[in-house]
Specification:
single chain; about 325 residues; alpha/beta; 10 helices; about 45% helix; binds uridine-5'-diphosphate; binds magnesium ion
């Protein structure tokens, strides 16, 4: 493996860590203590912690200002980004990556589910030449049977539909090199986002590590089943055009069906004793054709909706305040 440019220099290497926060008042200070404990052990490196407050309406920001930043240590700088409202986890990660100055950027959650004890090996992998490091969950304490089943189904579907093969258990705990980050910043500005998907689709040299995700420090996941469903559909539309082509298949099937049915009706009319009942055949034909038509229109509308969203070019996030300490 080639050595990354980052370690060819004699200066300290700057690593950025992006932490997304939405109403994490119970977890943020504990996450900071865990991070500080790990980061102070790493020699020859300095860190920039980017706290992205995604429109929290609890005490998260006050805790960062009063307890985290005031309690910092020599090799750690802080940047706090406050959004004007809640824009979602993906937007928070994008904002963090946009503002990071490090040679490598790590994204992680603030709820204790991404253990800081994994950071040394992620950074070591980057320093030895890896462009991005994906952390793959072997087990997730707070995932029930239904969530696991939905997730397995989603990855089966997307891997069938898309040319990109996604890793089933990849998480939003990952490291990207500056080069990968620049690509994400310049070319992946879609409204409909799935960062860990983009990363897996752009090539470069990757290493994957397994990790066990503990339960949340407090509270529950911000992703409801409806939000997960939206994310899943959005990802399918962003990475595959195959559902659009399904309408071609429907048209062919329908033409074959109509030809056969027409030939049969004509034959029975000319040679048969009793031609097929008009009512049954018309109902059959109508219900079949309408269901195909509506299904095709639905698929088209879903793509169209995503296309309109992209055309509007609205901001992915809006920053209310940004501070460097
Ligand atoms: N998060 C965020 N914006 C949101 C929802 C979540 O920044 O709208 C943050 C949240 O504070 C946490 C991370 O994203 O640090 C992951 O969120 P969560 O734990 O709810 O997701 P899960 O672990 O269930 O995937
Ligand atoms: Mg979580």
């Amino acid at each position: 493996m080639e050595t990354n440019d980052a370690i060819k220099t004699t200066e300290e290497v700057l690593i950025s860590i992006v932490i997304s926060l939405y109403n994490e008042e119970d977890a943020v200070f504990g996450s900071w203590l865990g991070l500080k404990n790990e980061l102070t052990k790493l020699k020859g490196l300095c860190f920039e912690l980017i706290w992205v407050n995604d429109g929290s309406n609890d005490q998260t920001q006050q805790i960062i200002d009063e307890k985290v930043i005031k309690n910092t240590t020599h090799n750690i700088d802080h940047c706090t980004i406050e959004f004007s409202k809640n824009f979602g986890h993906e937007a928070a990660m994008i904002a963090g990556i946009d503002h990071a100055k490090g040679k490598a950027i790590i994204c992680m959650d603030a709820d204790g589910q991404h253990p800081p004890s994994e950071l040394p090996k992620m950074i070591a992998s980057f320093l030895s030449g890896t462009d991005y490091v994906l952390m793959e969950r072997t087990r997730r304490e707070d995932n029930g049977f239904l969530k696991e089943l939905c997730s397995a189904l989603f990855y089966k579907t997307i891997n069938k539909l898309s040319s990109v093969k996604f890793r089933h258990s990849a998480s939003d705990f990952f490291l990207v090199s500056r080069q990968v980050a620049e690509n994400l910043k310049s070319h992946y500005r879609e409204q409909n986002r799935f960062i860990r998907g983009y990363i897996q689709s752009i090539g470069f040299c990757c290493e994957v590590f397994p990790f066990e995700a503990p339960g949340r420090v407090n509270g529950k996941s911000h992703y409801s089943y409806v939000q997960l469903m939206k994310l899943a559909l959005g990802t399918i539309f962003a990475f595959s055009n195959k559902p659009l082509r399904i309408s071609i298949l429907f048209s062919v099937l329908f033409i074959v069906f109509t030809l056969l049915f027409g030939a049969y009706t004509l034959y029975m009319f000319v040679y048969g004793n009793s031609p097929p009942s008009g009512y049954t055949s018309i109902i059959l034909l109508l219900t079949f054709s309408f269901s195909m038509l509506f299904l095709t229109i639905t698929i088209l509308s879903l793509y169209f909706e995503k296309a309109i969203q992209e055309m509007r070019h609205r901001p992915i996030y809006i920053i209310k305040r940004i501070k460097f300490n």
